């Protein structure tokens, strides 16, 4: 780091969670970037998400930080002068607030406490959508942020399966995993409808992707398992004719790239974690009592979603994509 870069005041943002959490915080991070153009923005998050964080274009560097589950990590990796501003996008505290306060920042933006001279903190509202929650936090401290500002820059590499329906059956918790046999049924019927289908999975999901692929009659060349590097995953999702998954990180990536998507919700309602209103994104959900998004068994509301409903939603997107591709080129398009 140059002496000039080192002299810049720094903002430390804590969001040490998963990919979906990172992407849902992009509108808030973009607001910080606009409000503090002369600062270096440092994002504390798991090291596996470094490439994803930098690809958002909202942060300058990352501070490796993680804890089991959704716990609050220690921030012992921070070196040098205290942060000029510390921003708690991790939760409503007090643990995350305390972890940031231990570094001695000049100012903390959080839902826990605003500091002795800043007045009371904003009120945490359980009914807020995740994107709106963090934008509202910043706005309470005078930082404008737009919850709809979710788009990422286009991927820098081509898709390994352009125009395919991408099926992602995994999720961090079983509560958000629709049964593999259901994904296989939908994938098999999509193939019968002349769609190219590929299956993706993260680390440790090799058996799951294999089960779905075999049930759909797909070959090894149609399976991307074990966790793709972020740049390749980003390109694959951005180039999909439709992205099908449960409520998990890559679903947020489809929204960030404007790729058509069908997302299956169960324990958490889409009004809290779903895509913004847009015809490119379909959220399927059967209303029911709130569940545990980190539960060990599939949520009952998720299991109420049927294969016919999912198939129809995916085909609606793929057919819309094909009709757009075949639309005659108008003079205005050539300009």
Search tags:
335 residues; alpha/beta; Rossmann fold; 6-stranded parallel β-sheet; 5-stranded parallel β-sheet; 14 helices; 11 strands; 13% strand; disordered N terminus; disordered C terminus
CATH topology of the largest domain: Rossmann fold
Number of structural domains: 2
Strand content: 5-15%
Instruction: Note the main sheet.
Output: 6 strands, parallel
Helical amount: 25-40%
Number of helices: 14
The quaternary structure here is: single chain
Mean of the pLDDT scores? 92
What is the distance, rounded to the nearest whole angstrom, between the alpha carbons of the first and last residues? 44 Å
Structural class: alpha/beta
* CATH level-two architecture of the largest domain: 3-Layer(aba) Sandwich
User: How are the strands of the largest sheet arranged?
Assistant: 8-7-6-9-10-11
What's the SSE pattern?
HEHHEHEEHEHEHEHEHEHEHEHHH
Low-pLDDT regions: 1-5, 326-335
Instruction: Give the name of the CATH superfamily of the largest domain.
Output: Glycogen Phosphorylase B
Number of DSSP-assigned strands = 11
| Spatial shape | elongated
Kindly provide the name of the CATH class of the largest domain.
Alpha Beta
Supply Rg: 21 Å
What does this structure look like?
This protein has helices at 3-7, 19-24, 26-35, 50-55, 95-101, 130-140, 180-192, 206-216, 230-238, 249-256, 270-273, 300-303, 307-326, 331-334, and strands spanning 10-14, 40-45, 61-64, 85-88, 107-109, 165-168, 197-200, 223-224, 242-246, 261-264, 281-284. The protein is 35% helix and 13% strand. The chain has 2 domains: 3-140, Rossmann fold (3-Layer(aba) Sandwich), CATH 3.40.50; 165-326, Glycogen Phosphorylase B (Rossmann fold), CATH 3.40.50. The radius of gyration is 21 Å and the shape is elongated. The longest helix has 20 residues, at 307-326. The chain has a 6-stranded parallel sheet with strand order 8-7-6-9-10-11, sandwiched between helices. With 335 residues, the chain is an alpha/beta fold. Residues 1-5 and 326-335 have low confidence and may be disordered.
